Amino acid sequence: MVKELILVFIATVLVNNFVLKYFLGICPFLGVSDKLSSAISMGFATTFVMTITAPVAWLINNYILVKFNLPFLQYVCFIIVIASLVQFVEMVIKKFFPLLHQSMGIYLPLITTNCAILFMTLQLVLKDYSLIKSMVFGFGAGVGFTLAITIMASIREELKFQDVPESLKGPGITLIIAGILALIFVGLGGLIQVK
Amino acid sequence: MQRTNILFSDFIKGLWQQNPTFRLLIGMCPTLAVTSQVQNGLAMGLATAFTLLASSIIISIFRNFIPREVRIPSYIVIIATFVTIVSLFLKANFPEVSKDLGPYVPLIIVNCLILGRQEAFASKNPVYRAIADALGMGIGFTLSLMVLASVREVLGMGTLLGHQVIFGNFRPWVIMLTPPGAFLTLGLLLGLVNIIDKAVKARKEKK
Q1: Count of CB contacts below 8 A, A vs B?
Q2: Which of A4, B10, B113, B161 could make an S-S bridge to B132, C-beta 3.0–4.6 Å?
Q3: Domain map of chain A by residue range?
């Protein structure tokens, strides 16, 4: 059981990295990765929301949607869950951890439209994960996102002092670097056989 | 006359000046994910364009009734409804395409292009202008997906829309079909668009 959970975790972080394999969360990946500190805050905020969203989405799917035979409401339900959870998390953090809110406050509302989260909830239904496995999956997806955006931000901080061709400045060179990073992660593909 | 002019400029700006993919850099997730083949790029483009058009019309009609405080959740629910329709339609009529696009169809809901246009345009303008804007943006998005997909499909498989286009001793660059190929192609295309844009501007200044 524990072994299986560890496998799911490593598979989601490294082998099936959400950003570099499935192209999820590209908007924050390109937009918030120019400073290391903000990239890390964004990563933590996303991981936090994902870990909470996964079990809630699982419960709603199994106890409401499946039970009452309403699969066509899946998209609408999940997006409402995500939007309201993000709002809720923001309120809780603002009330109890004002310092934390200062550092990641502006990133929280952006998370609603991070496609990685909706994708994650749909995947855990598709893969028929158990409740605990879903949580590990959500956490792993968040860690994978944090890993990718942190690596990217570190490279871009160095890039400021480099001589980049005029027309590739900004998003162009960022995407090319992402391509090289993705190449590295393709190399990790043989690490685990994922079903 | 003036009205047609406004409509035309609303429409045309999505194609080049404010092209969602190459200029505004929004809606990148599906752009990169489904463009390994032209057919899938086209399907995703059209699905997004339909959702954008339908939700723009609805939101533009109800723009004075939706309270400002809850506008984002209301937009998302409207968009999600249309995406559900698209998803069921694809599943029923084009099961193969639906299988290829897989999990990326529901992700149209959180495509920032759609939410962005509602927030920036449809919620502030009358229906006829919202339609022009949505059509322009939708077609611009579809075209740029197809440009990206053509490059990747021709180099990655030597085919275009499933027909062989490169003959002879060509060995396909399989890397173009994988995620790294997607990032590299889009990065280089962005550079190309910037060069073209600069050349066009320089020419205009000369005149």
Answers
A1: 116
A2: B10
A3: 2-191
